[in-house]
Amino acid sequence: MSITSLTRDWGFQPSIVRMTATNTLAEITTTGYVLAQLANIEAVNFGPFDWNATDYVLVNYVDSGPQYGFFVYDDATQSLTAAAVVPGSLSDTLPSADLFVGSAGNVATARALSGDATITNTGVLTIANLAVTTAKLAANAVTSAKLAANTLQYAAVAMTAAEFNGMYAAPKLLIAAGGANTLIVIERAVLAMTFVSAAYAAGGVVGLQYDATVHGAGVAATNTEAAADFFAAASTSFAFNGVAGDTVAIAPFTTTVNKGIYASNLTQAFTTGDGTWVVHLWYKVIPTV
C-alpha cells in the first residue's frame, strides 16, 4: 500500500498538491505516514519532494472504493491531517441541532431552525402550537390518509338556498368519500342559516347521511331535525350529533364505507326560503380493516 503519484499545481494560491495512494483514510492520517512513504515519494517524483507550509494536499485514497479529501502537511511529524475548511467549501463539522442552508452567496452555512418549528440534535422536529393554519396548507395537501384515525377534523361547507330547497331530490355533498376501507364518523355538525327575506316552508325532517341516496333515505350519519324548525324567519343555527344507539347506528359497510356525507331530507322538498347556509362539521375518518 503506497503513494502512486504526487504532483503540484504550480503558480496558484493556495498551492495544491495532488496525491494518489492505495492506502485507506486511517492509514494516510497515521502519524509519520509521509516519512514512511519517502521511498515511494522519491520514486514517483524522481527525487525528493519539496513541501510548503501552505500546501493543501488533495488525496485520492481507498475506503470501500475511491475517496478523496483535502489535507495539510505537518512538517514536524511528517504527517497529513484533515484540512481546515476553506471559503466556499462544506464543513465536516456542524453545531449541535443546526442545519446547512444555502446562503445568499450560494455557500452552505450552519443555521439554527427557527420560526414555526425547531429541531433537536437527535432529529426530532417540533412544530410550534397554532403554527399550522389553513392559509399555510397547500390545496388538498393534508389528506385524511395522512392523519391518525383519532384526529378530529373540521370542515365548513357553503350551501345555497337552491341547494337546500333541492336536497330532497339532489342531496348536498358535504364531505367527500375517504377512500377504500375508510368510514367517516360525524362527531357533530351545525347548519348555520343566514336569513335573507323569505322563510322556508314544506320539506321534511333533515339529517346527514352516507352517500347520495335521494329523499333522505340513506344510512343516517347524524340525528334528524323536524322540518318546522327550519321555517325560522331569523338567522338560526341547527345543531346535530353523530348517530348513537342501536336504532340509528346500524351502518352496513356496503352503504357507508368509502361513502361521502350528504345533507338531505325526507317527505318532500323545502320551498320558498332564500336564506344561505354554512354547514360546519367535526368528524373523523377511521379504517375499517
Descriptive key words:
single chain, 289 residues, mainly beta, 3 domains, 5-stranded mixed beta sheet, 4-stranded antiparallel beta sheet, 5 helices, 19 strands, rod-shaped
What is this entry, summarized?
With 289 residues, the protein is mainly beta.
Beta-strand content: 35-45%
Mean pLDDT: 88
Order of helices and strands: EEHHHEEEEEEEEHEEEEEEHEEE
Judging from the principal axes of the Cα atoms, what is the shape? Answer: rod-shaped
Could you give a short account of the major beta sheet? 5 strands, mixed
Q: Radius of gyration, rounded?
A: 36 Å
Total domain modules: 3
> How large is the count of helical segments?
5
Q: Runs with pLDDT <50, length 5+?
A: none
Overall number of strands:
19
The proportion of residues forming helix, as a percent range, comes to under 10%
Structural features, described:
The chain is rod-shaped. It is mainly beta. The chain has five helices and 19 strands. The chain has helices at residues 25-28, 33-36, 38-45, 161-166, 253-256, and strands at 3-9, 16-21, 56-62, 66-74, 79-82, 98-102, 108-112, 117-119, 125-127, 153-159, 172-175, 182-194, 201-202, 206-210, 220-225, 236-241, 261-265, 270-271, 276-287. A five-stranded mixed β-sheet has the order 1-2-3-4-5. A four-stranded antiparallel β-sheet has the order 10-19-12-16. A four-stranded antiparallel β-sheet has the order 11-17-14-15. A hairpin with a 4-residue loop joins strand 4 (66-74) and strand 5. 20% of the residues are buried. The chain folds into three domains: 3-82, no CATH class; 89-136, no CATH class; 144-287.
